[in-house]
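Quarterly update from the structural biology core.
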Amino acid sequence: MPSVAPRMNLLVLKSPDIDQTASFYRLLGLCLERHQHDSGPWHYAAQLNGMVFEIYPGKAETNVSSGTRLGFEVNDLDDTLDELRRQGARIVQEKTRSPWGLQAVVEDFVGYRVHLTECASSTSPI
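Predicted structure, tokenized:
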């Protein structure tokens, strides 16, 4: 048994429209770049706090909203939600105060639920 807990270093999402999905995650501040390894498919990748976040072409999981969930810390939750609304993202849960700070839940353009938490240093009253 290892004495140190493993650290997650890769997360891959599948999307039928990688460009549209990349646009959603760019709104959260991810610096996604197009990549291709050898003769593999074009995809998007970003370094995210020591982890690689990738978006590959493919069918999304069936009923993704009940399965995989993601979470990101953002600097300003109100600004982020406003921009996501302008781009047509679905807000599942409006901003609320939780034990972890101000949070909201949105769906990306494929249907993955994304929990957003405002950075503790910028948390303001509701």
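The first strand starts at residue 10 and ends at 15.
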